[in-house]
Design brief:
With 161 residues, the protein is mainly alpha-helical. The protein has one domain: Orthogonal Bundle (Arc Repressor Mutant, subunit A). The chain contains six helices and two strands. It has a two-stranded antiparallel sheet with strand order 1-2. Helix 2 runs antiparallel to helix 6. The termini are far apart. The relative contact order is 0.10.
């Protein structure tokens, strides 16, 4: 029996031995359902991006900078909903890996502007291909129509905050 077959059987046995636990009304609560869905989506996303060694947060930062070169760090925090103290560590990590660089803004020399490096652009391009595969797996679970509906509802919920 191959290693893959052994692992599959082990996973099947573990699932069959799990007790059914009644979650009561939790499954009807939006927050609970959103969190469970997030955990599932993030686990797949993190697995998908393991070859490029970036987190979902770093992927978001690189994407925003790619589409908005010269953006101020505070603006990246704002659009992604990242607290500034948390962003400092993310940005430092991306700079250490030579993926992002800070330059003086052309409009205001006192302001720092964020730009992707060539290495950052290349890594983001690879990550976007992997993200597309992740997105396809999520769509397979929901169907194209379900995916579109879910995105619309989630965006509506986020905008009303």
């Amino acid at each position: 029996m191959s290693c893959k077959q052994t692992k599959k059987r082990s996973n099947e046995r573990a699932r069959s031995h799990r007790r059914h636990i009644n979650a009561g009304p939790l499954t009807g609560y939006l927050g609970y359902a959103l969190r469970r869905a997030q955990v599932t989506a993030y686990a797949d996303f993190i697995s998908a991006l393991q070859d490029v060694a970036i987190s979902p947060g770093e992927f978001g930062v690189l994407t925003i900078i790619h589409h908005n070169p010269g953006l101020r760090p505070a603006d990246v925090c704002s659009v992604l909903g990242i607290l500034k103290p948390n962003f400092v560590a993310v940005l430092a990590s991306l700079e250490r890996r030579d993926l992002v660089e800070r330059r003086h803004s052309q409009n205001d020399r006192r302001t720092l502007a964020l730009h992707l490096t060539a290495a950052g652009s290349a890594l983001l391009q690879r990550a976007r291909r992997l993200q597309t595969e992740h997105e396809a797996r999520m769509e397979k679970k929901l169907g194209a129509r379900g995916r579109a509906q879910l995105l619309q509802l989630l965006n509506k919920l986020a905008e009303s905050g």
